[in-house]
Amino acid sequence: MLLDGVDLKYDYPIPVGGRAEPGVPDVIPFAVQYYQTDASVTAGKANTIATIDLEYQ
């Protein structure tokens, strides 16, 4: 998982508050990508699930 194009550190807080104007929602720029882990790539299914827990303080 990426945050602003950089590998995300898991179990690490990401401060996002205070950036938006009143009435404008904050946007957390998450993205995901697959990493090649073998010498060759073949066609097939590539299913995944990601869970993001948000904690408001």
From TrEMBL:
GO terms for cellular component: pilus. One of its GO terms (biological process) is cell adhesion. This is P pilus assembly protein, pilin FimA. It comes from Enterobacter cloacae.
